[in-house]
Every structure is written in structure tokens, then in C-alpha cells.
Automatic annotation (TrEMBL):
Residue ranges of every copy of the MurNAc-LAA domain listed in the record: 62-171
Catalyzed reactions per annotation: Hydrolyzes the link between N-acetylmuramoyl residues and L-amino acid residues in certain cell-wall glycopeptides
Domain of life, source organism: Bacteria
GO-annotated molecular function: N-acetylmuramoyl-L-alanine amidase activity
Protein name: N-acetylmuramoyl-L-alanine amidase
Entry's EC annotation: 3.5.1.28
Amino acid sequence: MKIAIDIGHANNTGARGNGLEEHAVAVTIAECLAPMLRQLGAKVDVIDFPGMSNAQDLNATIKAANEGGYDFGISLHCDASDNPQAHGAHVCFYPGSVKGSRLAMCIAEPLSRLLPGRANTVQSRPGLAVLKRTRCPWVLCECGFITNPENAALMKDHPGRIAEAIAEGVKDYLNQ
């Protein structure tokens, strides 16, 4: 089993809130998640192009994903909103991807239990390039709202708990 973890944005190109920046949060979650997935017996690569523009990062990520021989990939992101009360996690997949849908459902259950608040914790998203243009099943995890004080506190103080929820979902997916 070979899994890619994608840091969802280049450095300083993603969302900001509560003194946090999306790329830095995703890096910290990935640093916790990668060893957890390795303990499940997977080979894990972290895909990150921090010095590029956001568009360059996205294209380089898709290229790496399609050349890496991965069984599936997970992009790590943080939601943002003008409403600081908006909170909760959700996981996106490309419509029609049976494996992507199943992976998204498996991850969304523990992730949304940790970060509740979204009515729709699994979303089919046809317009997201990282889901549409990758050949292997791919999901995009919105690990809560960086603009919500409670979600941001979890990102800052307990990123390992977010990683544990994602790893629990991956384990469920692999055991099906």
C-alpha cells in the first residue's frame, strides 16, 4: 500500500486565522499522520511544494500524484469563513469515484466526530482539480475552520488528534 499525503497549499497561499496559516497547520498534521499510516504498513510520501505559487503547487502535486504509483491520496486543508462561528470538518471526493467516496466516508466519520458542526461531512466536488485530475482515488480533508477559535485551538495545540482521526478512517477503509 502506497499513500500520498498532500500539503494542500504552498507556503503563505492558503487560509489564515487565529494566528495560524493553512500550510503550516497542514505540515504539522502531516508530520503526525505519516508515521501513523506507516504503522498500518503503508509506504507514505508527503507531497509539498512550499516555495511555489498556489497554481504551481497544484500542478506539481497532480503531476507527483500521477507519477507516484499511489493507491490513494489525502490532501490536507483548513476551511475559512468570514463567520467565526463556522466550524467543523468535512471530506471531499470526486463524483463517480467509488473508492474515493468510500475513503471520504471512512475518514469523515472520525474526523467530524472530533470536529463536529458540518451538516454535510462528505461532499462530492467535481470542480476541485486535485480530485479531478489525479488518477488514483483522492480525498481532500478540510480539517476544521482556521477562522473558528475552537477549531484553530485544536489545530494549534493538538494536531495529532486530527491526524489520529484521519488515520482511524484510513484504517477503516483498508479493513473493508
